[in-house]
Amino acid sequence: MSSGQDLARREAIDEYEVVGRRPEPELQRLVELAAAVCDVPTAVINIIDDRHQHQVAAVGLAASVCAREDSMCARVLADPHPVAVPDARLDERFATNPFVTGDIANVRFYASSPLVTPTGTPIGTLCVFDDVPRGLSAPATRALDVLAEQVVDVLELRRVSRELARSNEQLTHFAGQVSHDLRNPLAALVGFLEIAADSPGMAEMPATAEALARAESSAARMTAMIGDLLAFARIGGGVGTGPVDLQREAKAVLEDLSSEVDDRGADVEVGTLPTVTGDATLLRALLQNLLANAVKFSAAGGQRPVVRVAAEAVAGGWRLTVEDNGPGVPAADRERVFELLARGDEQQSVEGLGIGLSTCRRIVQSHGGRIGITDSELGGACVWVSLPRPEDG
């Protein structure tokens, strides 16, 4: 097996954090079920890295660790598919194996189904065996495959749960750090705007008065958004539900971003957007992040920013897209840029800490949706968001 495959396997195993720990109750129940379904005394979940086989759950024996070269399951992992051997003494792959010869055990019947991650990396097996020769029925073979899939599902669920917990903790810590820095300058800004709006002679300057009113409105929206986002981070993602007119929210966002749009000479076009169900403040924050990023990174590419916002009905919901003519995001970075504090091209001199897309993903996921990046027909990046209709979950 190639070193590249071993590296991918080791990285996947490390993400699952299952080796060297007490057996997960869910995994233990699955091996017990495998033994019962296959009518054998012993079943094991084996995780196989580049050096060892780790029995992370077992019934019929005490879970242990052995060298990879002694593992029966390692012999079949290079070509992962279900295996059933009535008598291992008669199979050239296993005849001299210490689990068969008596040096470690006296396995005769052996069957296994591979554990393959969603990315296609085999990391081990769910195997059953007996010390007498025997066969395995077709229904039992299929059941073993299904149980192996369930093992991977349990590992994935545990991995995602840990990542979400770490993300929540990280975001909550970050929220506490920035709340003071965000709120105090904004409060000072609101105060200065109020003083300016009450200044003598403002009635004779209608254009200035209108600009101040717009600024006060934007500051009020920012205050509400900051409060709601910080609360969102602290409570672990609770969101409000109600009708949200994305067309109206996009208009408000463009008002807030008008100075930046004008300063950069950006051409921003918003198509017809739907009314969806969700949290208005969070979805406005989503639009603001996506539009601000599109304008900012397009301008960083050294050309006049062009941004297009559109939406279309798809099966089960809506697909929203924000496209730009900037430098785009390389395919290899399209997952990393959604991580907290991640940046795009590190060589680009672009303001901002890189928390926007992490927040966007969190908001979208809290609404039961998905977010990703593809290439745009404008030449840059296309950030897409799928949001489900309420009746579709």
From TrEMBL:
SMART domains given in the database record: GAF (SM00065), HATPase_c (SM00387), HisKA (SM00388)
Location(s) in or outside the cell: Cell membrane
Record EC number: 2.7.13.3
TM stretches of this protein: none
Keyword vocabulary terms for this entry: Kinase, Phosphoprotein, Transferase, Two-component regulatory system
GO molecular function: kinase activity
Gene3D superfamilies registered for this protein in UniProt: 1.10.287.130, 3.30.450.40, Histidine kinase-like ATPase, C-terminal domain
Classification via InterPro entries: BphY/WalK/GraS-like, GAF, GAF-like_dom_sf, HATPase_C_sf, HATPase_dom, His_kinase_dom, HisK_dim/P_dom, HisK_dim/P_sf
Limits of the Histidine kinase domain: 177-391
Catalyzed reactions: ATP + protein L-histidine = ADP + protein N-phospho-L-histidine
Pfam families registered for this protein in UniProt: HATPase_c, HisKA
PANTHER family given in the database record: BACTERIOPHYTOCHROME, TWO-COMPONENT HISTIDINE KINASE
Descriptive protein name: Sensor-like histidine kinase SenX3
Source organism (scientific name): Pedococcus ginsenosidimutans
